[in-house]
């Protein structure tokens, strides 16, 4: 099998073809020399691809190739090539060469697949999205990072937390038309509920109902509900962590069956809450 270096030596722009080749770190560095005027490099995506390669999860039969124009310019593939360099391992990849330079304007115009499109935890698409959002928020909070992870990571978390996720998903799904304050049920707050259910299911279920409805009989749940309504936050990992800590602060009072006099973020380190999180993809 040819290498990407062989194609470069032959003249990467010489003819229009699609071929699978071996891409070594050295080949990738040479190809990146033709990377002129490309889009902004997304470091987190390069790290995601690097992890896939190192863990042996790179698909050699992927149909989306890196793309070179008829002038030899790299039109598409800078993130994958940089990942090969960082992983320091060769992979097999499809390469398309000799394409019209103007094609660059039409690349990546489709809608990227979100995680809920890549995993299937429930037949109902709405419920599947809800489950996936909770698991993704749990990962972001525990790692304090928004970087992408392989679907196998989310699938293993679901296998571990499926009973608790099922309780939350079923509750939200059954009361979707009744819950007036959807902003209370952020994925990050549901991640705290997920952990609370493992600690004490009955008290956490009561807390969950009081988050949803103002006449709930769990005082900490009602207090947290009012706090969320007063403190609507923008998206972002820091906001998620704050809301998660506040949810756990209220939830701990509920688990200890005591009322809240003032609500403050939980002071303990995040690593002390819940269970160890292993994120290596298989």
Quick gist of this model?
With 282 residues, the protein is of the alpha+beta class.
How would you characterize this protein structure?
Helices cover 50% and strands 8% of the residues. It has two domains: 4-106, no CATH class; 115-272, no CATH class. Helix 3 crosses helix 4, helix 7 (151-174) packs across helix 8 (187-199) and helix 8 runs antiparallel to helix 9. It has a four-stranded mixed β-sheet, with helices on one face. With 282 residues, it is α+β, with helices and mostly antiparallel strands.
Helix/strand layout:
Elements (H helix, E strand, L loop, with lengths): L3 H7 L6 E7 L1 H8 L10 H12 L11 E4 L4 E3 L1 H10 L3 E9 L15 H4 L6 H19 L7 H24 L12 H13 L1 H12 L6 H12 L6 H19 L27
Parallel strand pairs: 2-4
Antiparallel strand pairs: 1-4, 2-3
Helix content: 40-55%
Beta fraction of the residues? Answer: 5-15%
Tally of DSSP β-strands? 4
Q: Using only CA atoms, what is the Rg?
A: 24 Å
Helix/strand/pairing category:
alpha+beta
In total, the number of domains comes to 2
The helix count comes to: 11
Termini separation (Å)? 27 Å
**Poorly predicted parts:** none
Please state the average pLDDT score: 81
Strand order of the largest sheet: 1-4-2-3
Q: What order do the SSEs take from the amino end to the carboxyl end, as H and E?
A: HEHHEEHEHHHHHHH
Approximate shape: elongated
> Largest beta sheet, briefly?
4 strands, mixed
């Amino acid at each position: 099998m040819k290498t990407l270096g062989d194609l470069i030596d032959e003249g990467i722009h010489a003819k229009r073809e699609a071929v699978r080749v071996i891409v070594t770190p050295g080949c990738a560095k040479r190809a990146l020399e033709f990377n002129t005027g490309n889009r902004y490099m997304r470091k987190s995506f390069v790290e995601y691809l690097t992890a896939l390669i190192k863990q042996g999860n790179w698909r050699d039969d992927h149909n989306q190739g890196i793309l070179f124009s008829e002038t030899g310019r790299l039109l598409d593939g800078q993130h994958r090539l940089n990942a090969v360099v960082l992983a320091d391992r060769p992979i097999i990849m499809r390469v398309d060469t000799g394409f019209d330079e103007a094609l660059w304007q039409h690349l990546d115009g489709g809608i990227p697949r979100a995680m809920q499109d890549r995993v299937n935890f429930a037949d109902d698409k709405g419920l599947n999205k809800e489950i996936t959002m909770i698991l993704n928020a749990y990962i972001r909070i525990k790692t304090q990072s928004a970087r992408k992870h392989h679907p196998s990571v989310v699938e293993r978390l679901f296998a571990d937390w499926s009973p608790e996720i099922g309780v939350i998903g079923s509750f939200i799904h059954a009361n979707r038309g009744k819950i007036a304050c959807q902003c209370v049920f952020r994925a990050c707050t549901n991640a705290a509920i997920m952990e609370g259910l493992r600690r004490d299911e009955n008290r956490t279920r009561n807390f969950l109902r009081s988050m949803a409805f103002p006449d709930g009989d769990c005082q900490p749940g009602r207090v947290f509900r009012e706090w969320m309504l007063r403190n609507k936050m923008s998206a972002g990992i820091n906001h998620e962590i704050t809301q998660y800590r506040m949810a756990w602060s209220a939830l701990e009072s509920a688990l200890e069956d005591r009322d809240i006099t003032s609500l403050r973020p939980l002071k303990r380190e995040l690593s002390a809450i819940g269970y160890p999180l292993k994120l290596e993809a298989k």
